[in-house]
Amino acid sequence: MIVDAHHHLWDPARGDYGWMPPDDPVLSRPYSLAEAEAIFRDHRVVQSVIVQAAPTIAETDYMLGLADGSAVIAGVVGWIDFENRDDRHELERFARHPKFRSVRPMVQDIADDDWLLQPSIRWAFDAVRDLDLAFDALGFPRHAPRFLEIFQFYPELRVVIDHCLKPNIRDGHFNAWAADMERFARETSARIKLSGLVTEAGGDCSTVDLKPYVDQVLASFGPERVMWGSDWPVCRLRMEYGDWLASAQALTSHLGADVQSALFSTNAQRFYRLPPSPGQPH
To answer: How far is it, in rounded angstroms, from Cα 54 to Cα 33?
Structure first.
């Protein structure tokens, strides 16, 4: 059984996906719950976590509505405006929803690399911690020192690093990123998602290209702190859902069935505190 720790659903007609190219044949079209659930059935995905893709309260409400209508979507990662203290009330409202699990500011799209360190947004980290929610860290390798400082300032915050912090695989920028992975694993309690790597690789992405990065994540964090995510439909820029799943399974097959079960299901369930899926013991 598979638990997908990271996927999206969207409809560009909603109008709040400012990052989305208007004419991209892969990205700039609706991705519906019905389409996702058909893919999940094909690949034995029993639970999933849907993740925000727009910096709006409205999109989080949209995702919660989708989750309400789905037995497979077990968790929602939403968004609040860290620069608006009034959004604490929105976060409190979200936290009352039985499937709301985590918050993700879109740090990768913020021009100021030091934005994370502003004292004026500390209230938001305090609120995430106080409400016993998780924090999804979305950024690039250049954000590593800022994320590290935040994670150390909030050691009790439950944190997962999305997309392995997006290493620049296509240009082979490995060493500095690998050192950052080792520091995160050694100096914080952060978890990490084995997701997004195919998008950071070149157009002819292969398991050979991905292997050093997957190996580094596993060596740094240990398999008990790693969870697999599809990043569908963004992964379709390089390969289809089943191709990325098969690649990730091949790259971790040497670890044995029990470890693969943790990587591809139970680690995500534990981090996001998802209920047992059908057929699992409580």
So the answer is: 17
Rounded-to-integer distance, Cα 188 and Cα 160, Å: 11
**Residue by residue, what is the 3-state secondary structure of 209-267?**
HHHHHHHHHHHHHCHHHEEECCCECHHHHCCCHHHHHHHHHHHHHHHCHHHHHHHHHHH
pTM above 0.90, yes or no: yes
Note whether residue 278 is domain-resident.
no
| Cα–Cα–Cα angle for 128, 57, 93, rounded to 5 degrees | 50
Domain extent for 237: 2-272
Q: Total domain count for the chain?
A: 1
Angle between helix axes 33-42 and 241-252 (nearest 10 degrees) is 40
**Residue 279 included in any domain:** no
Q: How far apart are CA 161 and CA 42, in angstroms?
A: 27
What's 92's domain CATH number? 3.20.20.140
Amino acid sitting at position 257: A
pLDDT tens digit sequence for 214-226: 999 999 999 999 9
What residue has token string 């998008």?
Answer: 199
The tokens for 196 are: 């997004």
Residue 280 in domain = no
Whether residue 231 is contained in a domain is answered as: yes
Q: Is the pLDDT of residue 203 over 90?
A: no
pLDDT tens, 74-109? 999 999 999 999 999 999 999 999 999 999 999 999
Does the pLDDT value for residue 147 go beyond 90?
yes
Is residue 166 within 8 Å of residue 192, measured between CB atoms? no
Tokens of 136: 């999804």
> How many other C-beta atoms can be found within 10 angstroms of the C-beta atom of residue 48?
28
